[in-house]
Amino acid sequence: MTTEDPDAAARRLAAVSLAADDPTGWFERLYAAAADGAAVVPWDRGAPHPLLVEWAGPRDLGGSALVVGFGPGFDAEFLAAHGAATTAFDVSPSAVAAARERFPGSSVDYRTADLLAPPPEWRHAFDLVVEIMTVQSMPPAFHPPATASVAGFVAPGGTLLVIATASPDAGGGGFEGPPWPLTRAEVDAFAQDGLDAVSVEKLASVPPWHRWRAEFRRGGVAP
Ligand SMILES: C[S@@+](CC[C@H](N)C(=O)[O-])C[C@H]1O[C@@H](n2cnc3c(N)ncnc32)[C@H](O)[C@@H]1O
After folding, report:
1. For the chain, how many structural domains are there in total?
2. Helices in the chain by DSSP H: which ranges?
3. Methyltransferase domain: which residues (predicted)?
């Protein structure tokens, strides 16, 4: 097992990918190293995100759900346990393999896919879409296409939940990522392609960080 700080190790891997104009290649290298015990996934909380748990409450969610960039998989398992027929995707095949191994017998459909080129059949297909800290894990130039993809997954009558890091002044500029925290304007940009904002909250987190939690809804009724 490595003794390097997990965040520093992840940034070191990211720097190599980003220098080669590859915004996501480092995720596979990180998850593959973690599977070999040579790295730690810094965002592996061992539990669903507390802001997702609080938002969902005890209700039965039902319907279909899509988890974007699922990472360790706890958010997807949480949605499935609350009655949603859940699909979850990540750009890293090793993340998919790790989740299948970690949750044997899970009802979650874990898939390898790229948010920047998602399967066309996912367009307007999910009653609930959950995006937690994936858009911000790519450099800002990729935020607009990634945001458009996320918004496009929501079915008529469906809901999008976004949880992301905000810089203390919500300005975002000058921060050397990863991650690249979302500005207020970037959060507001999820309201596109027929989605309307229901709520945008800026919540205190570990100082000096804040988190966005934002909910969007597409009008209409699921077919
Ligand atoms: C910072 S982690 C967050 C993981 C998880 N959502 C969470 O909150 O714990 C970002 C995740 O998104 C995945 N990811 C990054 N870019 C992606 C892309 N273009 N398409 C799909 N997944 C991506 C990474 O592999 C990683 O698992």
Report:
1. 1
2. 6-19, 25-35, 50-56, 74-81, 93-102, 143-152, 184-188
3. 66-158
Question: For residue range 98-128, what is the model confidence (pLDDT) as tens digits?
Answer: 999 999 999 999 999 999 999 999 999 999 9
CATH of the domain at 86: 3.40.50.150
Phi, psi of 208 (to 5 degrees): -90, 20
**Of 68, 137, 147, which is best to mutate to test ligand 1, by the most ligand atoms within 8 angstroms of its C-beta?**
137
| Segments forming the whole domain that contains residue 178 | 45-218
Q: Are the beta carbons of 68 and 134 closer than 8 angstroms?
A: yes
Report the distance separating Cα 10 and Cα 172, nearest Å. 20
**What does the pLDDT read at residue 97?**
98
The CA 135 to ligand 1 mean position distance, Å, reads 8
Q: What are phi and psi of 194, to 5 degrees?
A: 90, 0
**Virtual CA dihedral for 41, 42, 45, 46, nearest 10 degrees?**
20
Whether 40 is in a domain gets the answer: no
